[in-house]
User: What shape does this take?
Amino acid sequence: MGYSVGQVAGFAGVTVRTLHHYDEIGLLVPSGRNHAGHRRYSDTDLDRLQQILFYRELGFPLEEVASLLDDPDADPRAHLRRQHDLLTARIAKLQEMAAAVETAMEAKKMGIDLTPEEKFEVFGDFDPEQYTEETERRWGDTEAYRESQRRSATYTKDDWKRINDEFAAVHAHLGDLLAQGLAADSREAMDGAEEHRRFISRYHYECGHEMHTCLGEMYVADERFTAFYEAIRPGLAVYLRDAILANAARHK
Assistant: This one.
């Protein structure tokens, strides 16, 4: 009889909705149906799902996953070599961030005041102030820069930790949506982009939807931002940009 969609979701750690979506787009069509018309998955289907999730974890878009699995002439080794390089860079980035977090934790425990530079070591080569610096340089919105500077000057070490943790949670959520295969213009992704915009407005400067779309384009065009988001989830820079654009369009 095979496995139900709920059983497969439990095995694989994905949502039933994700499996339904894979079925609808032809990526993972269950081998059978029971007498009530409910999906039933075979062991072969589970093997295919394992491969799908493997490629998704590596950041492959759904269309490319389908091509790899369905094209007998496709060479997955070339893709894997490229993803291996990306993962190696991602691991190195995460190790740097972990070391910076440990430094911040130790400083907090010992009551040591961190310098402004040290507060942002957790971001590695990524500089959060680029949000405002790039906005001022490229769009002339100097009030946003001044506002960000005024707010930043009032934050304590605890404030910065809370702000960084909150922003990391926003990014992690968007990365999870990408991993689940939800489209950038889905309600969930647009809501995630809206929370991203609201975060900037809460802690840095008032960020309207038009300015937010400019930032989204910058995340893809500027390799510093792209590297930051790619370290969180391969493909996240473009995914966030597209979600921001879709979210701005629905608020017009």
Q: What stands out?
A: Confidence is low (pLDDT under 50) at residues 122-136. The two ends are 50 Å apart (CA to CA). The chain has 13 helices and three strands. The beta strands are 3-4, 32-33, 39-41.
